[in-house]
Write a structure and sequence with these properties.
Length: 485
């Protein structure tokens, strides 16, 4: 067993009963400190909504799928949801009300505000909508994670996904139009009216054809087979722009080599395009980095990799990406590695790691580039296999608390970051009881090799490998200062 390379200590200062989210709660300013008296207005805090795409598509559910697809597969699809305590502007502390419902249908359960809540490992057969209801002055610190586990047949492998929120525009770096790959773009409409979406596909040679327009009915999910839009293209990025509403998107990919299963995966969008991207948690075989260039000019990209003991050499230190295209770099087998991607253009990045199975089978998992860790984020953990949290090089400490089956939080622990390498941490170190979710804070950390500290959680089973990332911090401002006159 590999030795853990994290340094964990109990927080040396008194920590409040909960972590405070990124939302700022401003106290009234002392009168006379400004030329004009400030006034404060209360801003609404939006509910947090996430969509889990549901079971992998089968031949009966997706037109154009291989006739032998899922012929004899044993596949389980499950969802874990969690709601963590958060402080409000009035000083009250509680976890938001959490509801899980069928997309466009009735609620499966509705848990009221509490001291903290983690659901069971619930089997699902439909697309799910998870809603955390904001309290006055406090956004909902909620999340959901979907796990798809195949133990036989064409769909042998593991796919995990931090359920994503709906948006009017996003890009997913996943999928392939090559032979052997069955890649489906899944678009879910949580609204009450139909939504029109433009779907464009980026390939290594640039954007493939004109955008395709699709309509998604209210409360429904629609699948688009990517091979029909970019046949033969080895690597894809999918652009989605919605009109008249918002949609949630994910890419499902299953791969066969003849009749030998080569893996299953679910992916959604990661960090927005920027001149720097950070992907951490590359711990597996045959790692690949995929970079998309949404701009009109050629992108020159540099790569630096940091293992657990510092910067390491990788087969590629640079790459070129055509305008509106994607490119991949083969990085080989990696151990607990973070990759920092810099460019002269705004780009997006994701990575893939693999694992060998039995009788020639294999599995792969995708890892998105993530945003910098915020003051407080929650992360539900898959309830299968073994997993580790990976943190990119940084200075200071990242604070972690575990959520147990009863929703309670453990004492805070501080992970000392490695300024020149990737830090590994096992949630099992937090508590002797099973840790079902973690609340993670980067308030006392800063990036040493990049613009901040980034995190991913990688889980492995006997037949699979996959990854999830922290749910983006909730948005909303409880109070905002304004000036009158």
């Amino acid at each position: 067993m590999r030795h853990l390379r994290s340094i964990v200590t109990f927080a040396a200062i008194a920590v409040p009963g909960v972590l405070v989210a990124t939302t700022s709660f401003l106290t009234p300013l002392t009168p006379g400190t400004l030329d004009r008296s400030p006034e404060q207005i209360r801003m609404p805090t939006a509910d947090t909504r996430a969509i889990c795409p549901g079971p992998l598509l089968t031949d009966d559910e997706a037109e154009g799928t291989d006739a032998e697809f899922v012929d004899d597969s044993n596949v389980s699809t499950r969802v874990v949801s969690a709601s963590a305590p958060i402080s409000a502007a009035d000083g009250s502390v509680s976890a938001a009300r959490l509801q899980v419902a069928d997309l466009g249908g009735s609620a499966n359960f509705d848990n009221s505000s509490s001291d903290g809540f983690v659901s069971g490992d619930d089997p699902i057969d439909k697309t799910k909508l998870i809603t955390g209801f904001a309290r006055p002055g406090a956004p909902a610190l909620t999340t959901g994670v979907e796990t798809v586990e195949g133990t036989s047949g064409d769909l042998t492998g593991l796919a995990t996904l931090t359920c994503g929120s709906a948006a009017s525009s996003f890009r997913i770096l996943a999928g392939s139009g090559a032979a052997g790959s069955n890649s489906q773009l899944l678009l879910s409409n949580p609204g009450d009216v139909p939504v029109q979406a433009q779907v464009a596909v980026m390939t290594p040679s640039g954007e493939r054809g004109e955008p395709t327009e699709v309509s998604i009915k209210a409360g429904q999910q629609r699948a688009i087979r990517l091979a029909g839009l970019a046949s033969g293209a080895e690597a894809l990025a999918v652009d989605v722009n919605a009109e008249g509403g918002v949609v949630a998107g994910s890419v499902q990919e299953t791969v066969l080599d003849g009749l030998t299963p080569k893996g299953i995966d679910l992916a959604t969008s990661g960090a927005d395009a920027d001149s720097q991207q950070v992907v951490t948690g590359l711990d597996g075989k045959d790692a690949r980095l995929r970079v998309a260039n949404p701009g009109d000019d050629l992108a020159e990209v540099s790569l630096k990799a940091y293992g657990p003991d510092g910067e390491i050499d990788i087969p590629r230190s640079s790459m070129t990406v055509v305008a509106h295209g994607v490119a991949e770099a083969e990085l080989g087998d990696l151990d607990a590695t973070s990759v920092v991607v810099d460019s002269d253009q705004n780009i997006q990045a994701s990575a893939f790691i693999g694992q060998d199975g039995e009788k020639g089978s294999a599995d792969f998992g995708s890892i998105n580039a993530t945003d910098t860790l915020a003051d407080s984020q929650v992360m539900a953990l898959p309830r299968t296999g073994t997993g580790k949290l990976y943190l990119s090089p940084g200075q200071g400490q990242v604070q972690v608390r575990g959520m147990l089956d009863d929703g309670s939080l453990t004492d805070p622990q501080a992970i000392d970051l490695n300024p020149t390498g990737t830090t590994e941490f096992s949630p099992a170190e937090i508590s002797p009881d099973a840790v079902r979710a973690i609340v993670i804070s980067g308030a006392d950390a800063s990036g040493s090799q990049s613009d901040g500290v980034h995190a991913s959680y990688v889980v492995t089973t006997d037949s699979g490998i996959s990854a999830v990332q922290p749910t983006p911090a909730p948005t909303g401002v409880a109070y905002r200062d304004i000036r009158l006159g």
